[in-house]
Design brief:
Elements lengths: L1 E5 L3 H14 L4 E5 L2 H11 L3 E4 L8 H10 L4 E6 L4 H9 L4 E4 L4 H12 L4 E2 L1 H10 L11 H11 L4 H8 L3 H15 L4 H10 L10
Parallel strand pairs: 1-2, 1-3, 3-4, 4-5, 5-6
Length: about 210
């Protein structure tokens, strides 16, 4: 498996490369320290997973959006220092499939890789604590059907509308209709907020699949 690390900080970037290589000798890992070389490496190296610190010098969260537009199937794992919740939510809305802090250990890195390959989302415990500490969704009076719970759970795990449709034997149009109805019911504006709602209401847990 090919993994690309995008981080302009030598110590944290090189350290992350070393940790990933320690997980499996079958991982081919390369690193770029600048956004200018990131896109050329993506084209030539064709990684399965991109680890990115969008807070490091030379990168920003918009890079994630551009990468996802060019490579929609690429799994992106954000690894940053502690940051504001709005930055985390923005990264999630742009397509990050897992989020770690730089203080996370090799076990959580391995879990994030495995979850991403299974098209699930993964958040380290510290990220979950940070998000839940400042975000509050009031679901009193919200009545979700069994089908809606199934769909919100799959959305939160990173499944696309087509993948949900295939899994539940529904049409993509039906899934999208359910999704819009769910978002209206729980009072969220985008998929990132829907994921946070699912986490807080315990539809999904950190790194746990159904």
């Amino acid at each position: 498996m090919k993994i690309l690390v995008a981080n302009s900080e030598d110590i944290t970037g090189s350290g992350l490369v070393w940790l990933i290589r320690s997980i499996s000798e079958n991982y081919e890992v390369k690193r770029t320290d600048a956004a200018e070389t990131l896109f050329s490496l993506l084209a030539v190296f064709s990684p399965d997973i991109l680890f990115i610190d969008y807070l490091s010098e030379g990168f920003d969260v918009e890079v994630i959006k551009k990468v996802k537009q060019l490579y929609p199937d690429l799994k992106i794992i954000a690894v940053t220092e502690k940051t504001e919740k709005r930055n985390i939510l923005k990264a999630l809305s742009f397509g990050v499939s897992a989020y770690l802090l730089e203080c996370c250990d090799v076990v959580e890195i391995k879990e994030a890789i495995n979850a991403s390959l299974k098209k699930e989302q993964f958040f380290c415990g510290k990220i979950l604590n940070q998000l839940n500490r400042t975000e509050s969704f009031d679901c009193r009076g919200v009545n979700l059907s069994e089908r809606e719970v199934e769909i919100i759970t799959l959305i939160a795990k990173g499944y696309t509308a087509k993948e949900i449709a295939d899994k539940l034997c529904l049409s993509t149009h039906t899934v999208n209709t359910h999704k819009k109805k769910i978002m209206r019911k729980v009072g969220v504006k985008n998929i990132a907020e829907l994921v946070m709602f699912a986490i807080q209401e315990e539809f999904i847990l950190c790194g746990i699949s159904s």
